[in-house]
Specification:
Number of strands: 6
Shape: globular
Order of helices and strands: EEHEEEEHHHHH
Number of helices: 6
Strand order of the largest sheet: 1-3-4-5-6
Amino acid sequence: MAGLIDYSQLIPVFPLPNVVLFPKAVVPLHVFEPRYRSMVADALRADKLIALALLGDGFEPTYHTLEAPIHPIVCVGAVMKSEELCGGRYNLLLRGIDRAEVRHEDHEKCYRRAALTPIAPIEPAPEVGCELLSAIRELVFSKSLSSLAQSANWRAIFECSNLGLSEIVDLLAFSLVGSSCVKQRFLSEPCVHNRACQLIKMLQSIGAQCEQRDNARRRNGWPPPCCNN
């Protein structure tokens, strides 16, 4: 995917306090600040690329400047859909493409731009990758996670033939993890094996919680006996 992006060019950076994007995942964004309205307008006239960055600790005093701290590992996304609203605001759907690292920033415009270096996933050996994928699939299709998997549409991910282990792990983790700090740590991990193992532990933990909840409901007489009337 990195070949689709010209990394010799500066890429707009959109720093946010609580949003982390993963490759292949999609986030909706409402853009209302004047500087970021300019950023979106410029991106739409060019290659539609915007890198999402998570703001770092203590960003509040410098939020309205170009000096607010950000995490150096970002996700470059492409605008899939845009809607311009009254007053120059935008609604966007941004789809993640690549992990990337900020080398240096350019502050000539009212918004941040950066020179980025793409971060390629470090893939495990094929046989290890197959074992990890099988373990993840078994958990997603397990009885304890069936309701959650259905509501989150996780099983459809395995029907996409163009997705590799790295993308599958990212999409499941993106849906599963709520904390932006945890998502940032996940984004910053280039090793697919490590990410897959983290995901497996999360799925196992949630599966155990779901099983305990279901057992408690059964002990309390839920669901109730069927009525023959």
